[in-house]
Amino acid sequence: MTSMDSESATTILCTSKQTRFDIQSPNYRELDVEGLQITIAAAKPADGKATKSRGKAKTDGLEILSNAKLRLKEGQRYALVGPLLKAIAEKLIPGIPEETRIAILQQTKLTDDENRAQDQDASQTVLQSVVDKATSKSNVEREVKALSTGVEATDPHAPVRALRKVKHERLQQKLFRLDKDARLRSGARGMAVRKTLVAFEKVVAESDGLIEQPGDEISSETLQAETQEAVDMLADLQLQIEPTRLLEVEARAKSILTGLGFTDARMDQPIASLSGGWHMRASLAACLLAETDILILDEPTNFLDMLGIIWLQRYIEAMADRPDPPTLVLVTHDRDFHNLCTDLLILKDNDISYFHGTLPVYESSQAEKREYLLKMQAAQDKQRAHMEKSIAANKSAGKENNDQNKLRQAKSRQKKLDDRMGLQVSARGGRFKLNRDHVGFQLSSRAEIDIPPEARGVTMRLPEPQELRFPGSLISLEKAGYRYKRGAPLTIQDITLAIGMGDRIGIVGLNGAGKSTLIKLLVEEAKPTVGSVTTHPRLKMGYYSQHAVEHLQSLGRADPTLTALSLLTKEIDGALDEGSTRALLGELGLGGRIASDVPLTKLSGGQLVRCELARLFWRRPHVLVLDEVTTHLDYETVTALREAIHEWEGAVVLVSHDRWFMRGAIEGTMDDEGEGMEDSDDDDEKELARRRAVYRLKGGKMTLLENGVDEFERIVEKRVSKLLAD
Question: Compositional bias (Basic and acidic residues) at which positions (predicted)?
Answer without folding.
Answer: 397-406
